[in-house]
Design brief:
The chain is an alpha/beta fold. Strand 13, helix 10 and strand 14 form a beta-alpha-beta unit. Helix 1 packs across helix 13 and helix 6 crosses helix 11.
């Protein structure tokens, strides 16, 4: 039996793809008879401990004093790790934003997002985005330290591994494990009944996600297909700007912003949607792509990063070039107008997940990686 200490900047209930990945893998490790202690960011004023799905969760105080927040948090994390160390087997950190852990134990680091690529793709849309970019530069330097101190580095996609050349690392030495989804929970609705047809976007509303491209795409689609709406599930710094853009483009009543969706609501949105769209300028391996495909939902995604590794265009989804809202609108319209193709692609999407991207398969790869460094 292994006792793994996970280090992650985010964890449910408030988390995006990385936090959900860490939660799911940790839960699977516990199911397989291993112990997991998980350290994540807590509130500014106090530490908190809790048990979540058999995982021992430590929420260490996090004080958002930029640019010193990671260093301050890291001091407290290292103090906790030192107290837990005698009972641990190894440390598993998750990028983005983990503190550098100083330990004599074997260390594994998984790269979920490449900060260097995100910096290159960063959209400069307001003074806030400039501050966000400066913050990212500091985070990038810290991530280089974490990677260079690791005994084993893994990535969620082949593209994420290749991109680590920009960190001075050899992609051939990176272990590609991938991302996974619980196909028993994210599954098709056999009695799909929905009064309206809608194109779904689920994810964070932030720079690099191609959301202004999506607004242009929505305008093109809605002008032709009067019975179709766009539903945006997610939150983030771009929300207000996107609402304003939708209003400016005359999309009131055609684009709905739901805010953050809880898991059960998100599953229902996938199951009842007509198409899922991922307009990102960069993605390592988006969890929402796998979740949508697991629900049998046809996906239109930009041909970037891990999207291109999962989606075979015309077979289990459609790929379009990044930053081309016209091409995205054309692909969405093709699926809206061809029921046979849409259903065929949805079935193939589900089969892809069952064959390669279940949590059982990914957790076994994680365990193989652990055994290789112990």
């Amino acid at each position: 039996m292994l006792h793994v200490c996970m280090i992650t900047s985010e964890f449910p209930p408030k988390s995006a793809g990385t936090g959900n990945y860490v939660h799911n893998i940790s839960r699977k490790l516990v199911e397989k008879g291993h112990k997991v202690s998980l350290i994540t960011r807590g509130s500014a004023n106090r530490a908190r401990r809790e048990a979540v799905d058999g995982i021992k969760v430590f929420r260490v105080p996090f004080i958002p004093i930029y640019p010193f927040h990671v260093s301050l948090h890291g001091m407290l994390v290292n103090r906790l790790v030192k107290s837990l160390e005698p009972g641990l087997t190894l440390i598993h950190s998750h990028i983005p934003f983990p503190p550098l852990v100083r330990t004599s134990l074997p260390t594994v680091t998984t790269v979920h997002d490449n900060m260097k690529i995100e910096l290159d793709e960063h959209e400069r849309w307001s003074p806030y985005s400039v501050a966000e970019r400066l913050h990212s530069i500091i985070e990038y330097r810290l991530e280089v330290e974490v990677l260079k101190s690791s005994d084993r580095i893994t990535a969620v996609s082949k593209s994420a591994a290749r991109e680590l050349k920009k960190y001075g690392l050899d992609p051939e030495e990176i272990v590609v494990i991938g991302n996974g989804v619980d196909e028993r929970i994210f599954c098709p609705n056999q009695n799909k009944m929905c009064a309206k047809r809608y194109v779904l976007y689920a994810g964070r509303l932030s720079s690099g996600k191609g959301l202004f491209d999506l607004m242009k795409c929505a305008k093109l689609v809605c002008d032709v297909h009067r019975d179709v709406e766009f539903v945006i599930a997610g939150n983030g710094p771009l929300l207000g700007k996107l609402v304003e853009e939708a209003r400016r483009m005359g999309l009131q009543g055609r684009v709905t912003f739901l805010g953050e969706a809880k898991r059960d609501e998100l599953i229902r949105l996938y199951q009842n949607a007509t198409i899922h769209v991922i307009p990102s300028h960069y993605e390592a391996m988006p969890t929402v792509l796998l979740e949508a495909m697991s629900c049998g939902l046809p996906v239109v995604a930009t041909a970037v990063g891990g999207n291109s590794e999962v989606v075979s265009s015309g077979v289990n989804g459609l790929l379009v070039p990044s930053k081309t809202p016209e091409e995205m609108a054309r692909a969405i319209s093709q699926l809206l107008e061809d029921d046979v193709l849409r259903k065929k692609i949805g079935r193939a999407a589900r089969e892809t997940i069952e064959g390669f991207y279940t949590l059982d398969k990914i957790s076994e790869k994680v365990l193989d990686c652990y055994r290789s460094v112990i």
